[in-house]
Design brief:
Helices cover 34% and strands 20% of the residues. The longest helix has 26 residues. It has 2 domains: 159 residues, Leucine Aminopeptidase, subunit E, domain 1; 312 residues, Zn peptidases (Aminopeptidase, 3-Layer(aba) Sandwich), CATH 3.40.630.10. The protein contains 14 helices and 21 strands. The chain is an alpha/beta fold. Bound molecules: ligand BES, manganese (II) ion (MN) and zinc ion (ZN). Manganese (II) ion (MN) binds next to loops. Ligand BES binds next to helix 11.
Length: 500
């Protein structure tokens, strides 16, 4: 998708459709007013009739509006003009607009939505979010179909802007494209079925990514390497699978060497059957998404490298299948993690924490500023927060606050849960240093409590994305979350003198 900026007159602008804001009480935005004038009142007449009145969430497509070169006009209800919109409200309006235009199969569209006032947000942010919304709405996953869909994909998006905003809008577009392409990579990888997206496939993807982007370096450890490092916990999950596990590292250096990196650790279970503690059959196919954390790490590293951020970032991905087999780990088995701590595996379906704990111990070697892990870790998180917020836990308040506010700004929100010592008791085991499950209560918290036992040496946060990484039902598919949250966090770490 090409994105460009257009200054000046809307009348001569050629497009399949131009989206223009209108507001509650039948008010027209400046662009809507010029189209209304050029068409001798075509918009006012429709609005007066009450077909659309400007409330938030309304859209109405008008074909053949006289007096302008664009073939259609999409009226977009934006609510109260005076108050302006909150960032979140603006995103809802943008996504609806993008989806309407993309679903209509239009190839070349223009948006005048930059002229909507958004509280505490500038035009750079609006442009970035517009690029992201249209990139997301025009996303399609049809690699696995023998005949790809013939419906047109959006090819060109034009943003109507004021001259004074031009530079900021251009930066916003660059950021939106870089992040949007990262989101696409994340969605593509997560949507890919388990028989294609194996640990080996993830490793190859990392190596190819590093070949494509000269500022990225990929390293892949195999089973023997992990054995030498003493990763008994990670390897215990892989024992039940025919697919060899991989520990994948992507290193990006965009800042001076002495600047400590942000390390992102992504859960890469390419299929989670539950292992010997086999899952029930319903919706088990969705466990191909259990590597969404890993996919997110790849998406972020691609975006960071494409935008050449002036910081250092490392991605670490423990990748394996979780399968039942004669050689699989059994409930009651005790394994020794890389940290030396022993774990009684009471449920082989609590495998995410078993691979993450070794990856987290390993990650200390990068001398991190902070470590953030991203994992589809617990069904309990879906029960607690649904699909609107990722779960956030961690051992550092400043880091947690920074991630919460990044999520807020990015429209990719997280919500913090407590990580109190009181919950640690639930993990006690008579046979080992800890059990890998903590009972029915507070499942998301006890999972994080388990990880906390391996992250004492550094500032750490954990994002449980079980509810946010994909949608089920008719529109089943990966969302690409929380790439926008993490990119916002990383962008805020860049020196203010830096511009995209
Ligand atoms: N990958 C699942 C978590 C999951 C479940 C994500 C459903 C999204 C939807 C994880 O490996 C798992 O199976 N967790 C168990 C832990 C339990 C055995 C303590 C769970 O949540 O049921
Ligand atoms: Mn599981
Ligand atoms: Zn899992």
């Amino acid at each position: 998708m090409e994105i460009s900026i257009k200054l000046g007159s809307v009348r001569t602008l050629k497009a399949a459709c131009i989206a223009v804001p209108i507001f509650s009480g039948r008010r027209l935005s400046p662009t809507a007013q010029s189209i209304d004038k050029a068409s001798r009142g075509a918009l006012s007449r429709v609005i007066k009739r009450g077909d659309i009145i400007g409330n938030q969430g309304e859209v109405l497509m008008l074909p053949d509006v006289a007096g302008i070169a664009a073939e259609r006009v999409l009226l977009v209800g934006c609510g109260k003009q005076q108050e302006g919109l909150s960032g979140q409200e603006y995103l809802t309006v943008l996504n609806k607009t993008a989806k309407t235009l993309c679903d209509a199969g239009l190839k070349n569209v223009t948006s005048a939505l930059l002229e909507v006032t958004v509280r505490e947000r500038d035009s750079c942010w609006k442009a970035r979010q517009t690029a992201l919304a249209f990139s997301a709405a025009s996303y399609r996953f049809d690699k696995m179909k023998s005949k790809p869909s013939r419906k047109a994909l959006l090819g060109r998006l034009t943003l109507l802007a004021e001259r004074a905003d031009q530079a900021a809008v251009a930066i916003g577009i660059r950021l939106g494209k870089g992040i949007g392409d990262g989101v696409v990579l994340t969605r593509d990888l997560a949507n890919l079925p388990g028989n294609h997206c194996t640990p080996t496939h993830l490793a190859i993807t990392a190596v190819e990514l590093a070949q494509r982007m000269s500022n990225l370096k990929a390293t892949v450890l195999n089973e023997a390497d992990m054995q030498k490092l003493g990763m008994g916990s990670l390897l215990s999950v892989a024992h039940g699978s025919r697919q060899p596990p991989k520990l994948i590292t992507l290193e990006y250096q965009g800042g001076p060497r002495h600047i400590k990196p942000v390390v992102l650790v992504g859960k890469g279970v390419t299929f989670d059957s539950g292992g010997i503690s086999l899952k029930p059959g319903a919706a088990m196919d969705e466990m191909k998404f259990d590597m969404a954390g890993a996919a997110c790490v790849f998406g972020v590293l691609q975006a960071v490298a494409a935008l050449a951020l002036p910081i250092n970032v490392v991605g670490v991905v423990p990748a394996t299948e979780n399968m039942p087999d004669g050689n699989a780990t059994k409930p009651g088995d005790v394994v020794t993690s890389m940290s030396g701590q022993t774990i009684e595996i009471l449920n082989t379906d609590a495998e995410g924490r078993l691979i993450l704990c070794d990856a987290l111990t390993y990650s200390a070697r990068f001398d991190p500023e902070v470590i953030i892990d991203i994992a589809t870790l617990t069904g309990a998180c879906v029960i607690a927060l649904g699909s609107h917020a990722s779960g956030l836990l961690g051992n550092d308040d400043a880091l947690a606050e920074a991630l919460l506010s990044a999520g807020q700004r990015a429209g990719d929100r997280a919500w913090r849960l407590p990580l109190w010592e009181d919950y640690q008791k639930q993990l006690e085991s008579p046979f080992a240093d800890m059990a890998n499950i903590g009972g029915r209560e507070a499942g998301t918290i006890t999972a994080a409590c388990f990880l906390a036992r391996f992250t004492k040496a550094y500032r750490w946060a954990h994002l449980d994305i079980a509810g946010t990484a994909w949608t089920g039902g008719k529109t089943k598919g990966a969302t690409g979350r929380p790439v926008p949250l993490l990119m916002e966090y990383l962008l805020e770490r860049c020196p203010t003198s830096w511009v995209a």
